[in-house]
What does this fold into?
Amino acid sequence: MRLEPPCKVTEEKLTFDIQEIEPLLQAPPMAMKPWPEAMCTLKDGRVLYIREAKPEDVPLMLEYMERVMKVDHDFYDIVGARIYAEILGWHRKRLKDPFQLVGLIDGEWAGFANGRMFSKDIGISLHTMTFARGGRLGWVMYYAKTYYVLDILGAQEWWSTFESHNGWKMAGLEMAQPMKPWPQMQHELGGAPIYYLNQKYWQKVIRNFLRTMIGTELTFDVPEEVKKKNATFRIPKEVVV
It folds into this structure.
């Protein structure tokens, strides 16, 4: 857009340093507590190690998600494309206060769960995906990021929406999440209805979800042996979704 200035100016052209523009493009970050390392024994006996994704993981994560984007069943293509963009958005600092958790089994990438903080009181769930079958991995990964936002960060509400039928069944239905009024309130992932958990419902009911539904719990005292087994991040050779 171009307009004539309403008064005489002494400089017709202005030059900016990129460093001056960048603060306007990045959202000022909140002070977020980090996710502590955790582990969980899955229903089939495997040990899942959950940590925050690291910048050095990004090239392999993007490589794998490129392959997931080509899967044309159960909405893996659109979810894969959005996760790819969200990983890149975090890496390029174009998402407000994002977080991404990776679940590893003996160093191999088995699960992913991410989101972002809309404000100190509201956390936004973005996506959950698993890359290994069995053990109810998806339930654990979604629960882990919910625990992070409501228990560790202390948000008052956690907002989700679901693009796949399986995701809706896993978290929307089995956690019996209520919905915000629609269309007055819409989730940022395409304007679909918002499913939510608040602190009262979380503390009274859902905080025990892993124990009651799967018979397991998150453990934050991770033995060195488990850390060593997961020290090197690897992606699966095949796309198993």
In short: The radius of gyration is 20 Å. The CA atoms of residues 75 and 164 lie 6 Å apart. Residues 35-229 form a domain with the Aminopeptidase fold (CATH 3.40.630.30). The chain has a mean pLDDT of 95.
